[in-house]
Amino acid sequence: MARTRMGVARATAAAVALIMVGQQAVAAEPAQAETVLAETGASVTEAPIPWQVRLRALGVVTKDLGYVDTLPGSGLSYSDTVTPELDISYFFTDNIAAELILGTTYANIAGQGTIGGLGNIGKVWLLPPTLTLQYHFTDLGAFKPYVGAGVNYTIFYNQDTGSADALKVKNTFGTALQVGFDYMVDQHWGLNFDVKKLFLKPDFDVTVAGAKLTGKAELDPWLIGAGVTYRF
């Protein structure tokens, strides 16, 4: 009987020891996992921040079409410019983003066709904030192309006259198409190339030699830009 009790006691002690060892091993696993995460800089709760900014040098190339009402054969042309552009993007998912494009430039307006003798009619500054919805392709490694489409509202300000007595180009809505790519150098920095087409046809009022006239300026510019990307 004593031997039986001794065996039970030894078995119980052995079982308790195994349970204690198992508990210590289980407790050690999270600590080891935390050590590995700390060493690699990873975090189980870490998620990419959805904001991105770009700074580009932008070439603005206009369509050079337009007319003055009631003057058959009249035409208009506009100067092309280079200007800086800032855009801010927010990623809803890895593939879907919205981009707000900010920049300002100017255009010299000249007469063509039957009003070519007017020369430089005037100069206007444009502020054309544009919002596009984009689809980003993410399965090509560091090369990340995208396409987009959106809306534009162009504000015309600081309007000066040349040969005209008065000039008023009216603010207007337009649409935009976009294609481009980022080439990411590392997790945050990349190079960007981007082409946008704005469909922009503002109306205008002009007074020449005392005669008040109206017309439409068909700018429809191409915006061709290159610069740097920073993903937060």
Describe this structure as you would to a colleague.
This protein has 232 residues and is of the alpha+beta class. It contains one helix and 15 strands, in the order αβββββββββββββββ. The strands form two sheets. The chain has an eight-stranded antiparallel β-barrel. Strands 2-14-13-10 form a four-stranded antiparallel β-sheet, with no helix packed on it. The longest helix has 39 residues, at 2-40. Mean pLDDT is 86; it is low at 1-9, 11-38 and 40-45.
What topology, given as strand order, has the largest sheet? 1-4-5-8-9-11-12-15
Provide the low-confidence segments as ranges: 1-9, 11-38, 40-45
Sheet with the most strands, sense and barrel status: 8 strands, antiparallel, barrel
Summing up helix and strand content along with how strands pair, one would put the structural category as alpha+beta
Distance between the first and last residues' Cα: 75 Å
Summarize the helix and strand pattern as letters: HEEEEEEEEEEEEEEE
Specify the number of helices. 1
Short description:
The chain has 232 residues and is an alpha+beta fold. 17% of the residues lie in helices and 58% in strands. The protein contains 1 helix and 15 strands, in the order αβββββββββββββββ.
Helices, strands, pairings?
Layout: H1 2-40, E1 51-61, E2 65-68, E3 74-78, E4 81-91, E5 96-103, E6 105-113, E7 120-127, E8 130-136, E9 143-161, E10 166-169, E11 172-184, E12 189-199, E13 203-208, E14 211-218, E15 222-231
